[in-house]
Amino acid sequence: MESVLRALAIYAVLMVLFRITGKRSLGQITTFDFILLLIISEAIQNGLVGDSYSITNAFVLVTTLVLVDVGLSLVKGRSPRIERYLDGTPLVIVERGRLLRDRMGKARVDEGDVLNAARREGLERLAQVKHAVLERNGDISIIPWSESPGAPTTERPAA
Amino acid sequence: MARVDGLEVDQDLVFQRRSWVVQRVGWGLMALVVLAAVAGLLGSGPLSNARAEVPGLMTLEYHRFARFDTGETLRLSLQPAATAGDTVRLSLTQAFLGAVRLEAVQPPPARVEVGDGRLVYVFPVAEPRVPMVVTFAYQPREVGAAHGVVGLESTPEPRHVAFRQLVYP
Questions:
Q1: Is the ipTM of this complex over 0.95?
Q2: How far apart are CA B151 and CA B73, in angstroms?
Q3: What is the pLDDT of residues B99-129, one digit of tens each?
Q4: Rg (CA), chain A
């Protein structure tokens, strides 16, 4: 019983912690973010494992964690309300080419992040971005102008 | 390679549906594992708590299910009738002691005597006829069924309680 309670407690704590931290924490992961995650897992380990190094303990812990995750994903599928609390909502940060600076500031996303996402779509300049959305998983998705107004270079040059 | 509407993709719906079924069955099994763990079938929990007693003298509390290398205790509660003499002598079978790593006996015994297939822990009593609790803290070192007998040997006639513990890996 103790292992299950430990797993539930750690899951809940991490869930709340990372939800409070915000989307940026995991979306665009830097090397240091990655190292931080490793350190967090080390720090959590003792609390999770307790004084039991048995295989049974590890098995029960992992099963509980995975089951809670599956359970929550099923709940989220049924209830958009709960999904909102657990995963947050997408946020439009560029609307018809206009940067929504106040939102970007609050979400801790800057122009560079939008450009980064734009480049991954093969775009070169901010002017080519019609919409940008900060997704629930922290990714920025880009919708380019269909006939890129200030950017004739996106058109394939006529032969 | 199968093609769906010109899409070059390795889709196999029959296999996919089968995996979905397997997944759902798996979730059910996982839920059973967690329920069993909560109930105490895989370690601590309500179904794991057990007691054995000699009525009027002593009660032994232990866990039916334990885990390898994980802290466990045997808790012996002695009623006043069991502490009537000037010492209390408690024995534990060596077969059990050999299968565990004994970490502490609380209170510490004044001495330990070697008996036939058992160790006798001797506790001097300051005031006779007071209730007393003795705990043996240990970690199981052998996987499988462990079997032990606790004896109260300071009463005119020695009394014993036996217990069984299943140790998971």
A1: no
A2: 16
A3: 999 999 999 999 999 999 999 999 999 888 8
A4: 21
Q: Does B115 touch chain A (CB under 8 A)?
A: no
Distance between first and last Cα of chain A: 72
Best residue in B27, B29, B34 for a mutation probing chain A (most A CBs within 10 Å): B34
CA B65 from centre of chain: 5
Which two tokens mark B149?
């007998």
Q: At how many degrees (to 10) do helices A55-78 and B13-39 cross?
A: 120
Binary contact (B30, A70; C-beta < 8 A):
yes
Length of chain A: 159
A57 with B70: Cβ contact below 8 A: yes
* A101 membership: H or E segment, kind and range: helix A101-107
**Closest-CA distance of chain A to residue B79, Å:** 30
pLDDT-flagged residues of chain B (< 70):
1-4
* CA distance to A108, A115, A130, A159, B66, per residue, from A92 (Å): 13, 15, 11, 38, 54
Q: Who's near B103: CB < 8 A, 6+ residues apart? A: B71, B137, B138, B139
